[in-house]
Protein backbone atom coordinates (compact mmCIF):
# COMPACT_ATOMS: atom_id res chain seq x y z
CA UNK A 1 0.00 0.00 0.00
CA UNK A 2 1.24 3.49 -0.82
CA UNK A 3 2.23 5.79 2.01
CA UNK A 4 1.07 9.39 2.11
CA UNK A 5 3.88 11.67 0.98
CA UNK A 6 3.36 14.68 3.23
CA UNK A 7 5.99 16.76 1.43
CA UNK A 8 4.08 16.32 -1.84
CA UNK A 9 0.87 17.20 -0.01
CA UNK A 10 2.40 20.46 1.24
CA UNK A 11 3.51 21.31 -2.30
CA UNK A 12 0.05 20.42 -3.63
CA UNK A 13 -1.56 22.63 -0.98
CA UNK A 14 0.69 25.59 -1.81
CA UNK A 15 0.07 25.28 -5.55
CA UNK A 16 -3.74 25.05 -5.28
CA UNK A 17 -5.26 28.42 -5.99
CA UNK A 18 -8.48 27.47 -4.21
CA UNK A 19 -6.83 25.85 -1.15
CA UNK A 20 -8.49 28.36 1.16
CA UNK A 21 -11.89 26.92 0.15
CA UNK A 22 -10.99 23.56 1.73
CA UNK A 23 -10.23 22.44 5.25
CA UNK A 24 -7.05 20.37 5.60
CA UNK A 25 -8.96 17.09 5.48
CA UNK A 26 -10.90 18.06 2.36
CA UNK A 27 -7.69 19.13 0.68
CA UNK A 28 -6.00 15.88 1.72
CA UNK A 29 -8.86 13.89 0.18
CA UNK A 30 -8.47 15.84 -3.08
CA UNK A 31 -4.72 15.23 -2.97
CA UNK A 32 -5.15 11.48 -2.51
CA UNK A 33 -7.60 11.36 -5.38
CA UNK A 34 -5.38 13.31 -7.77
CA UNK A 35 -1.80 12.44 -6.76
CA UNK A 36 -2.37 8.74 -6.07
CA UNK A 37 -5.29 8.35 -8.49
CA UNK A 38 -7.48 6.87 -5.76
CA UNK A 39 -11.18 6.89 -6.54
CA UNK A 40 -12.50 4.29 -4.13
CA UNK A 41 -13.47 5.29 -0.58
CA UNK A 42 -11.99 1.95 0.51
CA UNK A 43 -8.57 2.77 -0.97
CA UNK A 44 -8.57 6.29 0.47
CA UNK A 45 -9.69 5.03 3.87
CA UNK A 46 -6.97 2.36 3.93
CA UNK A 47 -4.28 4.94 3.15
CA UNK A 48 -5.55 7.30 5.85
CA UNK A 49 -5.98 4.51 8.39
CA UNK A 50 -2.40 3.33 7.79
CA UNK A 51 -0.93 6.79 8.51
CA UNK A 52 -0.81 8.24 12.07
CA UNK A 53 -1.81 11.76 10.98
CA UNK A 54 -4.42 10.39 8.59
CA UNK A 55 -5.84 8.24 11.41
CA UNK A 56 -6.02 11.34 13.63
CA UNK A 57 -7.97 13.19 10.92
CA UNK A 58 -10.40 10.27 10.61
CA UNK A 59 -10.83 10.07 14.40
CA UNK A 60 -11.52 13.81 14.60
CA UNK A 61 -14.44 13.35 12.19
CA UNK A 62 -15.51 10.09 13.84
CA UNK A 63 -14.96 8.13 10.63
CA UNK A 64 -14.28 4.51 11.51
CA UNK A 65 -14.78 2.76 8.17
CA UNK A 66 -14.83 3.21 4.41
CA UNK A 67 -18.63 3.42 4.41
CA UNK A 68 -18.56 6.40 6.75
CA UNK A 69 -15.88 8.06 4.61
CA UNK A 70 -18.07 7.55 1.55
CA UNK A 71 -20.99 9.23 3.35
CA UNK A 72 -18.68 12.09 4.38
CA UNK A 73 -17.52 12.52 0.78
CA UNK A 74 -21.09 12.42 -0.52
CA UNK A 75 -22.16 15.13 1.93
CA UNK A 76 -19.18 17.32 1.02
CA UNK A 77 -19.76 16.94 -2.71
CA UNK A 78 -23.48 17.61 -2.51
CA UNK A 79 -23.16 20.94 -0.70
Describe the 3D structure:
The protein has helices spanning about 5-15, 25-35, 40-50, 50-60, 65-75. Helices cover about 65% and strands about 0% of the residues. The longest helix has 12 residues, at about 25-35.
Q: Which helices and strands, and how do they pair?
A:
Layout: H1 6-15, H2 24-35, H3 41-49, H4 52-60, H5 66-77
Helix pairs in contact: 3-5
- The gyration radius over C-alpha positions equals 12 Å
Strand fraction: under 5%
Compute the average pLDDT: 90
Helix fraction bin: 55-70%
- Beta-strand segment tally: 0
Q: List the uncertain runs.
A: none
Distance between the termini: 31 Å
Helical stretch tally: 5
Q: Strand pairing plus helix content: what structural class?
A: mainly alpha
The rough form would be described as: globular
Main beta-sheet annotation: none
Q: What's the helix-strand series? A: HHHHH
